[in-house]
């Protein structure tokens, strides 16, 4: 931990930094406003905030990679006694990657798909002229071993698509550490990873802090991760630091409503038992003889694979029922077959084995399923990323009109009435109808996506990670909206999530998938509070905040 | 590899289509080789002479018989005799082929070098005005008619600088100038596509990573973005080769070079069916082979792409 002398001269000192972005034809927009913080060697400083708060801009201020229209208008950044602000690009380049390491958000996208990972990990060494070609290879292989990558020799020549997300992130950490930097900037380093992998990556970063005397600036939206892993926290809102201090103090006494809200909605606030208990009360209101709407019997799906290897089993022998007005939660890591399973339910992918029935009618993968009376109308989907699932060049009205026309809902005036109604039930102002989706916020877009799913009056709505691309405070609103809609319209949900907190809150029944097999199934409260398989236990244990904060342990 | 076999089948269909198309196009165009051969003749027996020549050349047979003959002959590698030169059409073609091959290869090479260099320079240029200027070049290059480029180059290098001969210069200078005329449009289209792709590639997250590793702008563009941006350009090379084949006709006419282009123009004018069919068939084969090679190249450039079994 940091000693008093080190606190006098911190590794990184950011003082009163203000940043503006110039937009053509508009006044400059301030993005950061007199932000100050320190990072000491051998410690982790978290910068927490929602998207748009300016936390990533803060990282870019330190690495000197602001977008071309961004400008530091005041303040200074000092690394180990040397002022970085105002440094010419050529000199900054000598610092970047050498004294400051950087770990990007999405490890798979953060690596060049066309270059072997070993060559890429050696790039910082090459760029700073720190090792000859032969030495570089050796150094990288050593580093691969050090960051916990197995068989580093063979891995050197592999390409990113042949590696898992967690392995890619380890490659990037190895690349960042190759030049022995003093400071590491990690921008949401685990957001794109499964919880179990998330934990191992955070463990690795924590151990590097200890062994290398490294200072880390950890940028995250998840106060749960920050609380568990960091020594100091700075909470950013609208470009200002609203709360800053030692992690245990901030967690114990948030002090302001914004921090409190972040804390509540973060995974730290998760209490499976409480959420699942609350849901149980709703489950009791559903009549026991409610009709079965979705019935899957022994559903299986395999994909042919590349030459030489066995076919991939995406889903094997999956059977379950969902009663009218209830929610089935599907939990599993990426690659566990969740998405394939719901695509089969929706009739988008034919199953190889078994059958699915909706309202007693078999799901067919056929064009006859379209139309007003068809199956496709009765099953609708809401996707994870509303930025990707809505055409940015369409107005909300045309997006909502499309399913109505497609399912032959009725003449134009009737459809227009339905669109107004849809906006109302999803809590959107009527004025949104003629806006383009590109002008809407993430939360508004997801409401549009939900409205689109509800348009043809479906019986079953399949929600594929509907809140995981959203900010935590927006997640709350969308979950509340979904609960209200379910109650009022007696909707049946199939809800996919990797977030057990969300699953506990929305599900009546839970199915846990692993490698395409259902490993646990039952009442949500039972599965989440009394798991029978090691897999579910491990999933529960990897949720940040499930253990005490790091600083609380060490003090 | 089964898919590759299918591509090969498509290729055969393309070549057959080109052969058949050329045959019937030339057939429906008014006039035939008999008319060409008797062009100088005069007097009352012209009609008789024409009929005689037609019979001699077999042009009086029904069209499907002529077509079948031509096709079966071609399949055996025998395209028949050139009507005017009275020797195998294949020999006539092969004689002029090296001239055109030189021109087309050099043209293609120049197009790729010019196009890629221009795109990289655009991305490395800091001054906004210079950049804007450079960006406007590729669209201009694409929209310039090739014969105009040829004529301007001829004017400058032959008539003003006297570096080359205006009529069929057989030296390196002549070849080079003609290749430039041929390369301008191709280079422009390569650069247009590549510039757009580079721009997109440079906004990718892995570029952000490379920048944070302390790489220079040059390294980022050339080592990390270029390969990704080049993939669609490699695909377009197949089409560029097609454009080049067409371009050689114009370029050879303007520079009075005795290559395949000139041969084809003369053959079409004289309705010399065997020569036209040889030229079209071989051009189609080249086009198909280049595209097959491009397809085979793809998995080597991008390891994510594999031939599905």
H-E order of chain B: HHHHHHHHHHHHH
- Indicate the mean pLDDT of chain A: 85
| DSSP strand count of chain A | 20
Please state the average pLDDT score of chain B: 87
User: Which outline of chain A best applies?
Assistant: globular
Uncertain spans of chain A:
1-7, 546-555
Using DSSP, what is the number of strands of chain B? Answer: 0
How big is the Rg of chain B? 24 Å
Largest sheet of chain B: none
The CATH class assignment of one domain in chain B is Mainly Alpha
Rounded to the nearest angstrom, the distance between the terminal CA atoms of chain A is: 10 Å
% residues in beta strands of chain A: 15-25%
| Helix content range of chain B | over 70%
Corresponding CATH superfamily of the largest domain in chain A: P-loop containing nucleotide triphosphate hydrolases
What is the SS-derived class of chain A? Answer: alpha/beta
Largest sheet of chain A, in brief, is:
6 strands, mixed
Structural class of chain B: mainly alpha
Strand line-up in the sheet with most strands of chain A: 6-7-8-3-9-10
Strand coverage percent of chain B: under 5%
CATH architecture of the largest domain in chain A: 3-Layer(aba) Sandwich
Task: Give the uncertain stretches of chain B in residue-range form.
Answer: none
What does this structure look like?
- Chain B: Keywords: Cell membrane, Membrane, Transmembrane, Transmembrane helix, Transport.
- Chain B: GO terms for molecular function: dipeptide transmembrane transporter activity.
- The complex is a heterodimer of chains A (555) and B (309).
- Chain A is α/β, with parallel strands linked by helices and 555 residues long.
- The longest helix of chain A has 18 residues.
- Helices cover 39% and strands 24% of the residues of chain A.
- Chain A has three domains: 176 residues, 3-Layer(aba) Sandwich (Rossmann fold), CATH 3.40.50; 73 residues, no CATH class; 270 residues, Rossmann fold, CATH 3.40.50.
- The N terminus and C terminus of chain A are likely disordered.
- By secondary structure, chain B is mainly alpha-helical.
- Chain B has a domain of 213 residues: MetI-like (MetI-like fold), CATH 1.10.3720.10.
- Helix content of chain B is 77%, strand content 0%.
- Chain B is built from 13 helices and no strands.
- Chains A and B meet through α3 and α5 of A and α10 and α11 of B.
